[in-house]
Amino acid sequence: PILFVIRQKQAVLSFQVPLILPMVTPGYTLAVLSDIKRYNIFFFFFSLLQFFKYVFPDGVDTVIVKVNSEKNFPCSVMSIQDIQCPVYDLDNNVAFIGMYQTMTKKGAITVQRKDFPSNSFYVVVVVKTEDEACGGPLKYYPLLPDELLDAGNRSKTLDVVVYPAIDSEVYVMGMLFCLGIFLSFYVLTFLVACIENKRCVCVYSLSQPPYWLPLLCSDWFIFCHSGHEAFKRRLISSHHVAIHFERSLDTVGRCRQESLSSVEEDDYDTLADIDSDKNIVRTKKYLCVSDLARKDKRVLNKKYQIYFWNIATIAVFYALPVIQLVITYQTVVNVTGNQDICYYNFLCAHPLGALSSFNNILSNLGYVMLGLLFLLIVLQRDIIHNRALMRNDINALECGIPKHFGLFYAMGTALMMEGLLSACYHVCPNYTNFQFDTSFMYMIAGLCMLKLYQKRHPDINASAYTAYACLAAVIFFSVLGVVFGKGNTAFWIVFSVIHILATMLLSTQLYYMGRWRLDSGILRRMLYLIYTDCIRQCSGPMYIDRMVLLVMGNIVNWSLAAYGLIKRPNDFASYLLAIAICNLLLYFAFYIIMKLRSGERIKCLALVCVLFTAVVWGFALFFFFQGLSTWQKTPAESREHNRDCILLSFFDDHDIWHFLSSIAMFGSFLVSPNPSGWVDGLKKIYEKT
């Protein structure tokens, strides 16, 4: 070969012709020699150093360099370099300076004037010697001494386009649009509160005072005295509610006040016959809410407030290292210029300061603002309820389902943290950071299921410590699945077995209302139960409704476990989230069906909220499945899914997913605290008397 040495102003460039290019092969490092004749040397030399120069026009501070090709391979590297010599245009040095990214068909880099003091830059595109970096096959070249190897035609036709990026006005419009959408929910909530506060909902007496029956459409009400017997008969007949009016509710209130003698939860458990009493009450064939709401309300309030304080503590300890880590990621990207570290939608990634994709971060503002709004709504309801308790309001003491707000506070905090951690993930999205985006999604799904169960089972709902320990185990498996689950058969077998066992244990806990023990005699008791109920005499399940729910739940979970074991999806975190969402939807549907089956009505406001939320969820999922990038593939392959902005030239499909999903989650939360209706009040009075 001939060695060329070129002295330049600030550097020395040397290379040889024919050029030796290393080929990465399994176990060998070979050299591919180009067969170039002597009189073609200088032509080869000048074509090798071909690149493009761009000068920033006046008034343009940011441009997008877009490179397109009709062919996936050969794999290539697109580089943006400052105007200086030497220009790094070889596969082994193109990453030394500037910004660079691998590409197949698409490549795009946003370039800012402030990063280039000369107000200009070079665009360099280099064809790599192998395609593995772009997801292509790794060819095997056998070692044959004294024989030249042909790597094939490694040429690529490209279109290079440079066009101005958005200006500051578009940034301002995007931020105002984002703020305006979510501030409108604050305004709407304020208007609804004002309207409800002015409504006069009369409460008719079904007997002589002081026997009150509250007809509640909201938390704001007044009492109106009336003795209309016709209205009383119509009310009872229309809702099939049988009420005994002989007992004074004052007596009920006094009995309830007398039971509030201590704030210790285990005081109730110190009675000599408490175990038999629990077994008798909780294993009845027909249970009422009052059977599962016997513990001291103040004790339960403290118990459920722990949910909020625990999740607040978890949020602080989880968020601080996450923020530190993503700042480090962004710094590494800015310093090294390696655009393959983070999986952005490069065709709609608008930088701001040190952030590479500000629009994907801004669109998460909805989770934070709507989570805060939900907390304010819960706080308002909590204050009203506490004031009613201080007045010894019989409605607050004895009517409706038990009201505990600790889980609501935890749900609102989880929604806010989801927005913060999703924003952290989008600082530099990749597979190692994806757990930040999903951890509090698991929290939200779990807390929603716990809240639905707590409404009718406040005494036996899981404690905060047990619930968060289970959610921690879910996040632990999520991390294991992301790191070790891809194509690992042993991991999927272990996870599927644990999934099925957990489903069976939870089913047993729900069916027997906690009145069972997991000890050394469990197998003996199971065999005895099978013998007495299935072999000796064939008897159906005592709790048919619960059995139907649990059978459906087991079918769903066993099917999901089988799907995971057979298909072994690469995106384990999303698979785990799908399991949580399926179980939440199943239990929510069961809850609604049981309300209707028990003769309760769904209030108009709640029904509208459910329908609105379902529609928004549908649109949100449509934008979610557009798939603008995917860290399951190589960075070059992920860029093939990139698309231009579709809203205000600032937001892409994934940003719209953030907008709609935050609204849908907020609507889903509103369904939970919405008053269950005045029929619950009738039923509770009947159950208590």
From TrEMBL:
<dbReference type="Pfam" id="PF13965">
    <property type="entry name" value="SID-1_RNA_chan"/>
</dbReference>
<feature type="transmembrane region" description="Helical">
    <location>
        <begin position="39"/>
        <end position="56"/>
    </location>
</feature>
<feature type="transmembrane region" description="Helical">
    <location>
        <begin position="490"/>
        <end position="512"/>
    </location>
</feature>
<feature type="transmembrane region" description="Helical">
    <location>
        <begin position="605"/>
        <end position="625"/>
    </location>
</feature>
<dbReference type="InterPro" id="IPR025958">
    <property type="entry name" value="SID1_TM_fam"/>
</dbReference>
<dbReference type="GO" id="GO:0005764">
    <property type="term" value="C:lysosome"/>
</dbReference>
<keyword id="KW-0812">Transmembrane</keyword>
<feature type="transmembrane region" description="Helical">
    <location>
        <begin position="12"/>
        <end position="32"/>
    </location>
</feature>
<feature type="transmembrane region" description="Helical">
    <location>
        <begin position="465"/>
        <end position="484"/>
    </location>
</feature>
<feature type="transmembrane region" description="Helical">
    <location>
        <begin position="365"/>
        <end position="384"/>
    </location>
</feature>
<keyword id="KW-0732">Signal</keyword>
<dbReference type="GO" id="GO:0051033">
    <property type="term" value="F:RNA transmembrane transporter activity"/>
</dbReference>
<feature type="transmembrane region" description="Helical">
    <location>
        <begin position="307"/>
        <end position="327"/>
    </location>
</feature>
<dbReference type="GO" id="GO:0003725">
    <property type="term" value="F:double-stranded RNA binding"/>
</dbReference>
<keyword id="KW-0472">Membrane</keyword>
<feature type="transmembrane region" description="Helical">
    <location>
        <begin position="405"/>
        <end position="428"/>
    </location>
</feature>
<comment type="similarity">
    <text>Belongs to the SID1 family.</text>
</comment>
<feature type="transmembrane region" description="Helical">
    <location>
        <begin position="572"/>
        <end position="593"/>
    </location>
</feature>
<keyword id="KW-0325">Glycoprotein</keyword>
<keyword id="KW-1133">Transmembrane helix</keyword>
<dbReference type="GO" id="GO:0005886">
    <property type="term" value="C:plasma membrane"/>
</dbReference>
<feature type="transmembrane region" description="Helical">
    <location>
        <begin position="170"/>
        <end position="195"/>
    </location>
</feature>
<feature type="transmembrane region" description="Helical">
    <location>
        <begin position="656"/>
        <end position="674"/>
    </location>
</feature>
<protein>
    <submittedName>
        <fullName>SID1 transmembrane family, member 2</fullName>
    </submittedName>
</protein>
